[in-house]
Amino acid sequence: MPMDNTPHTPAAASPLTRAVLEIDTYASGLGWDRPAVLFALVDTARLRASEPGLADRLELTESSELTPIEQEELPAGVPLDEFLATIAWPDAVAGCALVVERLMLPPSAERAVPEELAREGAEERLAAWVAEHPERREVRMTVAVLRDGSRESALRFRDKDTETEVLTGTDLVPGLAAALSATFEE
């Protein structure tokens, strides 16, 4: 999947931030209501040296330090946390990223979750409650980590689906970043 750095990516952004925004832009082009997508992040210079034909086919630019490579579709019916626990990356992979859509509630609504729905085993009922909540927001999260522990995230809300409204930060989705980091632990 060839991806280009987009005009909204700040030139001073870190390579990981640029990769996250590049993946976010790619996912945005696919539209909403999509399954989760996993990417390997590889060092572009290393990829050029070891696989020049592939680098040419991907039309890699000199400015990209990390190249996202889309992985096979995630297995249907397997909870995301269970799937991530099965991943082990080869040494050539510098990091990984995941794009996933979820419903979010503001903190005030989270505090109002009925106690019986906050208990273990009530996940389906809680999801239904969130889906019906009037303050829910649909969000696409792109979370990436590197082997060295670096993290970056991009959040795009469906109701503000423009390149200029994408939020970025290192700790926007800490639980998912931790789960992705665990895929590099031996």
What does this structure look like?
The chain is α+β, with helices and mostly antiparallel strands and 186 residues long. Helices cover 31% and strands 24% of the residues. The chain has a 6-stranded antiparallel sheet. InterPro entries: PPA1309-like. This is PPA1309 family protein. It comes from Streptomyces carpaticus.
Low-pLDDT segments: 1-7
Number of strands: 6
- Percentage of residues in DSSP E strands: 15-25%
- Distinct helical segment count: 7
Approximate shape: globular
- Which structural class do the helices and strands define? alpha+beta
The N- to C-terminal Cα distance equals: 29 Å
Gyration radius (Cα, Å) is 17 Å
Q: Mean pLDDT across all residues, rounded? A: 86
Largest beta sheet: strand ordering: 2-1-3-4-5-6
H and E order: HEHHEHEHHEEEH
Largest sheet: 6 strands, antiparallel
Helical amount among residues, as a percent range? 25-40%
Protein name: PPA1309 family protein
Short description:
InterPro entries: PPA1309-like. The protein is of the alpha+beta class and 186 residues long.
Primary descriptors:
single chain, 186 residues, alpha+beta, 6-stranded antiparallel sheet, 7 helices, 24% strand, globular, disordered N terminus
Helices, strands, pairings?
Blueprint: H1 15-30, E1 37-43, H2 44-50, H3 52-57, E2 66-70, H4 80-84, E3 93-104, H5 107-110, H6 123-132, E4 137-146, E5 151-157, E6 167-169, H7 174-182
Antiparallel strand pairs: 1-2, 1-3, 3-4, 4-5, 5-6
